[in-house]
Write a structure and sequence with these properties.
Oligomer: single chain
Helix content: 25-40%
CATH architecture of the domain at 47-150: 3-Layer(aba) Sandwich
CATH topology of the domain at 47-150: Glutaredoxin
CATH superfamily of the domain at 47-150: Glutaredoxin
Strand order of the largest sheet: 1-2-4-3-5-6
Distance between the termini: 47 Å
Largest sheet: 6 strands, mixed
Number of strands: 6
């Protein structure tokens, strides 16, 4: 009983810390970027660094794999490890190689993509070719540098 109460209190405190952070929990990259003129980016805009791309999933962007590498990031808004990787990608976007496109897939609202790639847990990463065929898949609490080093 004491363990359960401790976990609940810890979760509430963690959630409160996230809500007070400079990048609110669940906020996407597009909401935290600015346009070249310094104005805030419009909701839904991609976060494109001078190097790579990090944005919401769009099937047309699978074509980027013919000239580079495309990774699908299955993430859920309620997933703590997903939020941590999202923050890591945003904080290190300039380290993203120019030939890498990371597409955020909403785990909860994409059952057809989860089935296609046999994704059973959020915080799954799937590298695909330009036709959407799986090349490699991995799960877990990876950092940006870790999974970039494992991309084929």
């Amino acid at each position: 009983m004491i363990v359960v109460i401790g976990l609940l209190v810890g979760g509430i405190l963690f959630y409160g810390a996230i809500r007070r952070s400079t990048v609110p929990y669940g906020q996407t990259t597009a909401e935290t970027t600015t346009a070249p003129d310094g104005a805030p980016a419009e909701e839904g805009e991609a976060h494109v660094s001078a190097r790579g791309i990090y944005q919401d999933y769009e099937p047309a962007l699978l074509a980027n794999a013919d000239m580079g590498k495309v990774v699908l990031f299955f993430k859920a808004g309620w997933c703590i490890t997903c939020a941590a990787l999202d923050r890591d990608i945003v904080a290190n976007i300039d380290r993203l190689p120019e030939n890498v496109t990371i597409l955020k897939v909403d785990y909860d609202n994409s059952p057809e993509l989860r089935a296609k790639y046999n994704v059973k847990v959020q915080h799954s990463l799937v590298q695909v070719d330009e036709e959407g065929n799986e090349i490699k898949q991995w799960q877990g609490s990876l950092k940006l540098e870790q999974f970039l080093s494992e991309i084929v």
